[in-house]
Amino acid sequence: MATMSHYGTDRDVLRTALDWRQQGHAVALVTVLKTWGSSPRPPGSLMLMRRDGAHAGSVSGGCVEEDLLQRYRDGELSEHCPTCVDYGVNRMEATRFGLPCGGRLELLIEQLDASEPLQQLLAAIDAHHLLARTVDRHTGAVTLQAASAEQDFSCTETTVRRVFGPRWRLLLIGAGHLSQYVSQLALMLDYHVVVCDPREDYARGWQVEGTELTELMPDDAVKRYADHGRTVVVALTHDPKLDDLALLDALASTAFYVGAIGSQRNCELRRKRLQELGVTAAQLQRLHAPIGLPIGSHTPPEIAVSILAEITALRNQSGAQLNRAAGVA
Question: Which residue range(s) make up the domain with 279?
């Protein structure tokens, strides 16, 4: 019987693909190439298929997966790999497959015949490196090369290029209780999480696997890690000596988001302190404080959800604006 997994992170999908290959299964990789209208999953989304119906990841949120699996089991999609498939090319098909009104997907189906590229991609992700996987759409040949944080996904008539690794970095100031929950959620969202705390007692007690811990002073940590526009800096110590030190440099950096925890009153006092220290009015407008969406959160897990929700909303809003400016559907 077919089994449906969660969408999964890139690492989950690659790890599953490697496991299935090593178990002797034939594995197909499906990649969303283009979308039109209200398609549920963005370009670059991934899904794995096995002939017994097992699959991992998602390319449409459940709309076309069953049909894809059936066609793969029947051998239709594996005879000429790589191959492209269109779903929702007209309103009748969009309705049949449950795609939103006007939705359309173009998918690339590949047969994964080698384990080594999967192992290299997993090693890069674990080392917090970015690696681009490029597929020749005619031959299926795969090449891997180093990539930058500004790159993501591209599709031409001849190649498909997908970057793997932590394209976004989260720098947390403070290794306290709240940071544990924020970092765990951020790891699920594929961030490279760096936790900064020069306080020996806090640093010694940090145990969240998959994160990077630094005992640099906060301003030095910002200089080292907030070095590109896909960085998020969040100050969570409640200690002005540490939080303000990080914010001074973060607000002058290219970081996408800078935020700090605290009550409304404490945040206003923080703004006055930062202004006295030379932070400009324009820079202060970049500061999100108090941090997080107003969802009535009280416990550390709830506050962590509100923080990541706000950052995610702003990231998605920014991505949509960039797509509209570039004329991308």
Answer: 168-316
Question: pLDDT tens across 156-191, in order?
Answer: 999 999 999 877 999 999 999 999 999 999 999 889
Sheet with 142-146, strands from edge to edge, namely: 142-146, 131-136, 159-164, 153-155
Taking the C-alpha atoms of residue 300 and residue 112, their distance in angstroms, rounded to an integer, is 42
Q: Are residues 109 and 236 in the same domain?
A: no
Choose the final residue of a domain: 57, 88, 119. 119
In total, how many domains does the chain have? 2
Rounded Cα–Cα distance for residues 114 and 57 (Å): 20
What's the first-to-final CA gap in the chain, in angstroms?
36
Verify cis geometry, omega within 30 degrees of 0, for the bond prior to 82.
yes
Residues 190 and 302 in one domain: yes
Same domain for 310 and 194: yes
pLDDT digits (tens, 9 = 90+) for 115-159: 999 999 999 988 888 899 999 999 999 999 998 766 788 999 999
Separation between Cα atoms, residue 159 and residue 141, nearest integer Å: 10
The answer to whether 131 and 163 are in contact (CB under 8 A) is yes
pTM score over 0.85: no
Choosing from 80, 100, 119, the residue where a domain stops is 119
Run of H or E including 135: strand 131-136
CA angle 103, 104, 106 (to 5 degrees): 155
What are the structure tokens assigned to 68, written together? 């894809």
Strand partners, 85: 107
Give buried/exposed letters for 131-151 (b at 16+ CB in 10 A, else e). bbbbbebeeeebeeeebebee
Is residue 34 a part of any domain in this protein?
A: yes
pLDDT at residue 7 tops 70: no
